[in-house]
Amino acid sequence: IGTNGMGHTFPGACYPYGSIQLSPDTDTIPHNVNGKYQKDVYNYCAGYQYKDKSIVGFSHTHFSGTGHSDLGDILIMPYTGKTFLNPGTANNPDNGYRQRVDKTSEKANPGYYSIKLSDSDILCELTATKHCGVHRYTFPKGAKQKIILDLKHGIYNYDGKTLWAQCNVDSKEYISGYRITNGWSRTNYTYFSIHFSKKIKEYGCKDFGEKKYNGFWGKFNTEKNFPEMGGRELVTWFEFEDDGNEELEIVVFLSATSTLGAYKNMAEDDCNIIGKRDKGIFDLTRKQTEEEWNRRLSIVEAQGSDDAKAMLYTSLYHTLINPSLYQDADGKYRGIDHNIHYNNSQRTNYTVFSLWDTYRAFHPLLTLLDSTLTKDIMFSFLKHWEVSPHKMLPVWSHMGGENWCMVGYHGVSVLADAINKGYSIEECSRERFLLAMEHSANCDYYLGTDAYKKYSYVPVDKQYCGTSITLENAYEDWTIYRTLSLMKIDKDLEEYYKGRAMSYKEVFDKNGFAHARYSNGEWKEPYSLLSTSETGLVEGNAWNYSFYVPHDVNGLMNLMGGEKNFVKRLDTLFTMHIPDEFFAETEDVTREGMLGGYVQGNEPSHHIPYMYMWTTQPWKTQYWIREIMNKMYRNDIDGLCGNDDCGQMSAWYVFSAMGFYPVCPGSNEYVFGAPYLPYLKVKLANGASLEIKATKVSDKNRYIQKILWNGKEYDKAFITHEILMQGGTLEFVMNSKPNKKLFQTKESKPYSLSK
User: Among 67, 242, 268, 286, which lies 20 to 30 A Cα-Cα from 80?
Assistant: First the structure.
């Protein structure tokens, strides 16, 4: 399964789109010390680095491939000897509960993770259901069986992040509690109910937080065998009775609503694993979870080399992790208003929406493959909007909070794409969704929206990344225009958003490059086309961002001086060299993710290789797509070229392997690239099957000679969602030389707002 070089993909055990991501954390570097950012923390966005030789413990919540982080809730670490209540350091594991590991023993499969702790000779195994994480620790014969339960540990941690933690011993086999944190999610409630397979012998705790008031709790010894443990920096420990069995099984159920919610998840979870304890909780859970992963992954049947299939299924796996279930078994969930809501509909509430990334390919992929989750996401967006004080759809939300990461209002794009592909839910009319989209596009205090409406661009003296905001807002406004034009309910409003969709032109200079402007209309000077710093752009340079007009490629081509110059600039982008100094200060852009000046390792560029399809040289898309897939996606521990970002990087690969890509979500078109494998059979969201054949495809035979749809020649450079959902056979005839007569007519070209 692997991670990228940044270590931002966790290797642990989870259930498809489940609420638990149970995984090892290998260090405790804080986000900041006395307010000063610690740059090495970036390597631990998922809590794990493959190169590390020790493990701190196993926590239950993680992000998959993000470039910023949070979570790492409810950490458990087994041990046998002296009790340490601090994690120690990587340089000296012996001064804490951290332990060295035997890397040769490490295994990771979908739904399962295991490793041997060298210092204590404990075999650690993890699995998960949609509501719980299950641990099995096999101790050496005759050794004392103990665990640390650290409730102050976290990813991107810092002093004061945990506002309060509580742990109650409810019986000899059950404990429950919660912790409240203030991090990327400004207020995150994590409740737990934990079942042990053995009786607790004794236990204790220590609160490392400063106490300025303790009430009358001083009358108790709260640090040893006291059943109500609490504190701001609480670490607890438990020792278990010796029953002659070397295995200790621990089942951890989480909830965002209450300990009762966690307990109900325990009682009502589909697996009902506690009721089957006599048959072995861990093995039953692992079996059921692996069966679910096999069911999910088997929607694609592939032929090709072992490495190519490993990359395809790993990519598909990554698209099945987030978003995460955020609702109890009884229908209760925490809204972003932090009230507890009850969902009595057939839909399910989810969280973790990295929309600046995932609107591009991940969500369009769901519309093809998973109608249930697509509708659940629409429902989750609706419930977010209904209680949002800002009346906005999600921007980047997780764990009952909006974290406001990145720019744009891409929840609009996700809804527009789904609605325009025929998706709807009983809980909301399309008109109401449109209202939510409009509200998101008109929150004046959000990232210069007031200035955007006043100037038709966002000046960099109003917002430092105003050029990126302008380009992305223009696309999102186009999705509203597109939705209005299909619904035919308000022609004036439709024209208004069509005008806003053309705002991108306001930030292109006379040379046809995206260029930062001030509110007085002047261009920012001096200006670098190569730099990723102080250019009005976010996580990208002007060379890449100048191609970000997915809804109006013809209009962009005109701004760049016509097709000849447009193609020349694309060619230059893929072959130029950019010195390291121009992206040294941008964590999300690295040399490993670059092909020439093109940045596959970060999302703003993902559509660019497909833009040749609007020109008379479409075969160049076919060439570069295969180059990117060969060089940027490898079957190795460091096999990804950048942050996977909750499945976006992997969704790009899945689409590109099929031979097409959603350059402009909302247009209902998938633009052809070229298939990567000789055969794919995909089960679509409506139950139909799509077969993709490219018998002779190879690194040499990467060029399309012709395309057949159900045996008939197909002459367009794109294929629509409606056609694909009918099911059928898409056949590519491949050759070592391009067919330069293919896709040459105006009628064959993909959608563009400008003719």
Answer: 286
- Amino acid in the structure at residue 552: D
For the stretch 135-167, pLDDT in tens is 999 999 999 999 999 999 999 999 999 999 999
Helix/strand/coil percentages in the chain, nearest 5: 30, 25, 45
Nearest-angstrom CA–CA distance, 745 and 88: 66
> Each residue of 58-73: b (16+ CB within 10 Å) or e?
bbbbbbbbbbbbbbbb
Whether the predicted pLDDT of 587 surpasses 90:
no
Among 358, 448, 355, smallest CA distance to 409 is for 355
pLDDT for 585 equals 78
Radius of gyration for the alpha carbons in the chain, expressed in angstroms and rounded:
26
Using DSSP, state whether 682 is helix, strand or coil. strand
Q: Is 117 helix (H, G, I), strand (E, B) or coil?
A: strand
CA distances from 409 to 34, 187, 221, 666 (A): 33, 22, 52, 14
Say if residues 156 and 61 touch (Cβ distance below 8 Å): no
The amino acid present at 482, given as its one-letter code, is: R
Asked whether the bond before 526 is cis by omega within 30 degrees of 0, the reply is yes
In the block, which residue shows the tokens 């990804």? 640
Distance CA(337)–CA(508), nearest Å, equals 40
User: What is the length of the chain?
Assistant: 755
CA distance 721 to 268: 38
Are the CB atoms for 669 and 301 separated by under 8 Å?
no
Task: Indicate whether 275 pLDDT > 70.
Answer: no
Residue 256 neighbours by CB distance under 10 Å = 25
Cis link prior to 323 (omega < 30° from 0)? yes
Give the Cα separation of 172 and 242 in Å (integer): 13
Percent of the chain with pLDDT over 90: 92
Going 313 to 316 to 318 to 320, the CA torsion angle's sign is negative
With a CB cutoff of 8 Å and minimum separation 6, the contacts of 736 are 700, 701, 702, 703
DSSP string, 45-66: TTS--TT-SEE-EEES---SS-
Query: Residue 630 corresponds to which amino acid?
Result: N
Which of 392, 524, 397, 550 is closest to 463 using CA atoms?
524
Annotate 620-645 with three-state secondary structure.
Answer: HHHHHHHHHHHHHECCCCECECCCCC
CA 312 – CA 751 distance, rounded (Å): 28
Does this model's pTM top 0.70? yes
Q: What is the reported pLDDT for 270?
A: 47
Four-residue CA torsion sign, 211, 216, 217, 218: positive
Q: Is a pLDDT exceeding 60 seen at residue 5?
A: no
Task: Measure CA of the first residue to CA of the last residue in the chain; give whole Å.
Answer: 45
Residue 1 pLDDT level (bands cut at 50, 70, 90): very low
Whole-angstrom Cα distance, residue 571 to residue 630? 19
**Residue type at position 627:** E
Q: CA-CA distances (angstroms) from residue 569 to 161, 192, 403, 564, 611?
A: 47, 55, 36, 9, 11
- CB half-sphere exposure, 610, CA atoms < 13 A: 27
DSSP 379-406: HHHHHHHHH-TT----SEEETTEE---S
Tokens, residue 643: 């942050």
pLDDT digits (tens, 9 = 90+) for 364-403: 999 999 999 999 999 999 999 999 999 999 999 999 999 9
Residues 6+ apart with CB under 8 A from 305: none
3-state SS of 544-602 is: HHCCCCCCCHHHHHHHCCCHHHHHHHHHHHHHCCCCHHHCCCCCCCCHHHEECCEECCC
What are the contacts of 275-279 at 24+ separation with CB within 8 A? 277/197
Please name which of 537, 427, 413, 430 lies closest in space to residue 480, comparing C-alpha atoms: 413
pLDDT in tens, 29-61: 999 999 999 999 999 999 999 999 999 999 999
